[in-house]
Write a structure and sequence with these properties.
heterodimer; A: 326 residues; alpha/beta; Spore Coat Polysaccharide Biosynthesis Protein SpsA, Chain A; 3-stranded mixed β-sheet; 11 helices; 22% strand; B: alpha+beta; Aminopeptidase; Alpha-Beta Plaits; 8-stranded mixed β-sheet; 18 strands; 36% helix
Chain lengths: 326, 394
């Protein structure tokens, strides 16, 4: 029965951050294996939360316990004080547009994650979103620990109890709205094994360089989905692990914003289905996301262009292959 | 004419002169201190519910190399940083409890030059300074002769009635030379006396057999309002200084139903214990009188009561603290304490309370500390410990 394998994977590859509380032990294991770990926070206008993330993660995981060897904030061109605040608390701050300038500049979180592979030197790269209100060192050590301990694991995703921060207080959201009404049904239809991943869209994950450099990166909403689909295709479910990081408090997004996000994810998803031969023919897909707006009783349609451009695997970039430290 | 300083004064002068340099050097360990403040402050720690925050304080004591880190039977966390000579100890304590309930979202926001969130000033940053002291001293190359006894005390606020520190001092068998209570705010506060305090809660109930048709019949809100007016008729002397504060009123939950129960929280502080006792008696008698006259049931519960205590303004500890504040660019503001200093002094130990930085919106959910003045506050604390250690405060 298929469920037996699911349970086995769930049992073997699902962790809780509490299993890795002994950070000194992790540091020793990391050093013994000669690993270097880089931490990347992609940002765009995150002045409210970036200070605390840099402060806590740098202080606890670089100064108190040297688990992280390198810590960078990679920014898409913030208009607020994100860069100033991050630099003030000791992060190395980079503009994505300054990294690999010969390949040009595209706007999106995935662009920052992709360029981090070139900019950072670690054998493991850990990505943490910048909008976490309740940041804690577990958001990093919980993700890198399975990679330090188990060689067969290549990619570790976070999952949480995710309350949303409303003005009236915190409310539980289950797995996240897009996960529950879009991703989980799609995975159930086309990639049933991947339904074992409890929060496929979580923005926190850590991975080995050799897998990150071998996969393309959508620069927009589809980056998390594409990672799962591409790595599953290459390595199977056993390359993944997931860690329960308990509670993550983050901003609530409007339903409209989630609709746009789903539109971007669907582009990435259908492209993968086609590329992996799961569907034979696919019509030219529209790139305009359309929704309605009503004002004074008059309905009007809004169309917004959402193009899920992709960066090729980093290993295909000449500038990356010729890095002085590679 | 040249005035020659005695070797002792010269040495104190030396400590004072080093303060600006210390302030500068402390900037290098700013992140460590602030991280502790945020991590401690984001753990809810209402009075009687401090366990989780205390657990982290204990971890920090252990990580920072203290001897005998422990949580005592009352819930306080403590540890010892051994001095080069030992024999006596300097106690440094910060209360770990907060006025905010566990249900309050304890999310702190870190800005470029401030931190905002419930309890950051009172007293997450104070507690962070205490748990981080070993690292700060190590960074500055300061080694004390005395043992440094660090305490994260529980049950300080409100109904806690200073029980944590009281129990700790009653059971800890070690010679304490002097004590310093550390509060996040406000920088410049200089407390060397504990103010006589009476905290009480008056509960008014309307009995089930209450005659709603009787003359003057009313619900709990009306009765409480009249009761508060009568309380305000109690004469409050200007000298010795005495003050009554109404801190909380709870009554009713709807628009159209008269509540049958309500409560009033108040605090009376006075420089004279006799006045305090007399006012307690008057409040108590008023409760009885009001009950009989209105057919309600009014009871007084004394939540906390402390007598006046203190060391003189001219005490070397106070004098030295003032000198250190001046040198740190801090203007002293004499402010009698209603906190843990009271217990310390009553236990026979000279002590002061100092504040680390400036703050806004104290005890509101948007409580804010300013980071710029913090280095002066920390340098003040460390220099004071050095001065006590070198005998300039006796």
């Amino acid at each position: 029965m298929k469920t037996v394998k699911k349970q086995t994977w769930l049992e073997r590859n699902t962790f809780h951050h509490g299993e890795f509380w002994d950070i000194i032990k992790l540091v020793k294991e990391k050093e013994k294996k000669g690993m270097k770990i880089s931490l990347c926070i992609p940002t765009l206008n995150e002045e409210k939360t970036i200070g605390k993330e840099v402060l806590i993660l740098r202080s606890e995981l670089m100064e108190r316990y040297p688990l992280i060897d390198e810590f960078a904030v990679i920014d898409s061109g913030s208009q607020d004080k994100t860069l100033e605040v991050a630099g003030n608390y000791g992060a190395d701050v980079y503009l994505a547009s300054d990294i690999l300038p010969e390949v040009g500049d595209k706007r999106g979180k995935g662009e920052n994650l992709w360029k981090a592979i070139h900019q950072l030197k670690g054998d493991i790269i850990c990505y943490v979103d910048a909008d976490i209100s309740n940041i804690h060192p577990r958001f990093v050590y919980g993700l890198v620990a399975p990679l330090i301990r188990r060689e067969e694991i290549h990619y570790v995703k976070a999952f949480y109890d995710r309350p949303l921060n409303y003005s009236s207080g915190l409310r539980s959201s289950g797995g996240g709205r897009v996960t529950e009404i879009l991703i989980r049904p799609l995975f159930s239809l086309f990639y049933p094994e991947l339904t074992n991943v409890i929060q496929p869209l979580s923005g926190e994950y850590a991975a080995r360089r050799e897998v990150l450099e071998a996969i393309p990166f959508p620069i927009g909403y589809g980056v998390e989905t594409s990672h799962l689909l591409d790595l599953y295709e290459k390595f199977g479910l056993d390359a993944f692990a997931q860690t329960d990081l308990d509670r993550r408090v983050h901003r609530n997004q409007t339903t409209n914003a989630l609709g746009k996000m789903s539109f971007g994810i669907l582009q990435t998803f259908f492209n993968r289905l086609h590329a992996q031969g799961k569907i034979d023919q696919m019509p030219e897909m529209e790139t305009f996301y359309r929704r309605f707006e009503v004002e004074d009783g008059i309905y009007s349609q809004l169309a917004q262009e959402v193009v899920e451009e992709e960066r090729p695997p980093m290993i295909e970039i000449e500038g990356y292959r010729n890095r002085s430290d590679s | 004419m040249t005035t020659e300083s005695s070797p002792r004064e010269a040495s104190l002068e030396y400590l004072l002169k080093r303060i600006p340099e210390q302030m500068e050097r402390l900037k290098a360990v700013r992140e460590t201190c602030l991280t502790d403040a945020v991590l401690l402050g984001e753990i809810p720690s209402p009075t009687f519910g401090e366990e989780d925050r205390i657990r982290l304080a204990l971890d920090r004591f252990r990580e920072n190399g203290l001897n005998d880190p422990e949580i005592d039977e009352f819930g306080n966390a403590s540890g010892i940083l051994p001095g080069t000579e030992g024999g006596s100890s300097i106690l440094v304590t910060a209360h770990a409890d907060s006025v905010f309930s566990a249900e309050t979202p304890h999310v702190l926001n870190v800005g470029p030059d401030s931190i905002t969130g419930p309890g950051i000033a009172d007293n997450a940053i104070g507690l962070a300074a205490v748990v981080g002291l070993p690292r700060l001293l190590e960074h500055l190359g300061v080694q004390l002769k005395d043992d440094l006894l660090l305490l994260a005390n529980v049950q300080s606020l409100g109904r806690g009635n200073l029980e944590g520190t009281r129990a700790f001092l009653e059971t800890k068998q070690c010679p304490i030379r002097a004590g310093v209570c550390v509060e996040g705010a406000t920088q410049g506060r200089l407390s060397y006396s504990g103010l006589g305090t009476l905290r009480g809660e008056i509960t008014l109930r309307i009995p089930s057999n209450y005659d709603w048709e009787g003359f003057g019949a009313a619900g709990a809100i009306s009765h409480l309002t009249r009761f508060v007016n009568q309380l305000m008729e109690i004469p409050i002397p200007k000298e010795p200084k005495t003050k009554m504060i109404f801190g909380g009123l709870r009554c009713g939950s709807t628009f159209n139903t008269s509540p049958r129960r309500g409560s009033l929280r108040f605090e009376i502080t006075s420089e004279d214990d006799n006045i305090l006792n007399d006012m307690e008696k008057q409040v108590s008698e008023l409760c009885e009188q009001f009950s009989l006259e209105t057919g309600t049931s009014v009871g007084l519960e004394v939540v906390a009561k402390r007598e006046n205590c203190g060391i003189p303004f001219t005490h070397p500890l106070v004098k030295t603290t003032r000198a250190i504040m001046h040198e740190s660019g801090i203007t002293p503001n004499v402010d009698p304490s209603t906190g843990d200093l009271n217990v310390l002094i009553r236990a026979g130990h000279p002590g002061v309370t100092v504040g680390l930085t400036t703050a806004e919106n104290l005890r509101e959910e948007n409580e804010t500390i300013h980071l710029g003045p913090l280095f002066g506050g920390l340098a003040q604390l460390i220099t004071l410990l050095q001065a006590i250690d070198q005998g300039f405060c006796e």
